[in-house]
Structures are given as C-alpha cells and as structure tokens.
Amino acid sequence: MNVLDEILANLEELNRRMAHLERIATGTPSALPKMVTLKQVAEFLAIPVATLARAEWRERQRFPQARKSGRRLVWSEQDIKDWFEHRQRRG
After folding, report:
1. pLDDT of residue 75
2. Domain ranges, residue 53
C-alpha cells in the first residue's frame, strides 16, 4: 500500500466517523446497520460469488472488512455502498 492509498483509506474512515457524529449531534437516530451476505454483495457488484469469497481479492481491492455471523461472512450495506461510490469516483 502506498502513501496515497493510506491517506485515502484514512480519509474514508474520517468521513464515516464524521457522518456518525453528525447523526448524534442532530439527534438523528442511529439505526443498526443492515447487514448483507456474500451472495447479496456479489449480485450487487455483478461479480461471481467465488471471486468475492477469495480473501486475497478483497484485500487487493481494499474491500470493506467482513464480519462473521455464524459461519457466514456479512458486511454493512453502507460500507459496501461507500466503497462502491468511492471506486466509481476514482474511475
């Protein structure tokens, strides 16, 4: 990971935290994040489930961190949307 990638990753994290703080400051209820499964994410991104299941692909693409729910991988829907929008802006 080069310095620019680290800066971008830190900026994304700061933006996410600032949005959370704004919700708290304005009294907007902070609902629990909707969690999405491997299959749902693969369908949204139009990629094979097997590709998304490979940890090295997710690491290389700087994909959001998955969480375990039992034996399943799940992601925050908002994390996936944020990652996708960032990739769209970068071109």
Report:
1. 94
2. 32-91
Which residue is associated with the tokens 């375990």? 68
pLDDT tens readout for residues 35-49: 999 999 999 999 999
Q: Give 58-82 pLDDT, tens digit per residue.
A: 999 899 999 998 999 999 999 999 9
The number of distinct structural domains making up the chain is 2
Sign for the CA dihedral angle at 56, 61, 67, 68 comes to negative
Same-domain check for residues 39 and 24: no
Q: Give the three-state DSSP class for 69.
A: strand
Between CA 8 and CA 5 the distance in angstroms is 5
Both tokens assigned to 44? 């949204």
Kindly state whether residues 16 and 38 are assigned to the same domain.
Answer: no
Q: What is the pLDDT of residue 28?
A: 63
Specify whether 22 is located in the same domain as 61.
Answer: no
Q: In sequence order, which ranges of 3-91 are alpha helices (DSSP H)?
A: 3-25, 38-45, 49-53, 55-60, 77-90
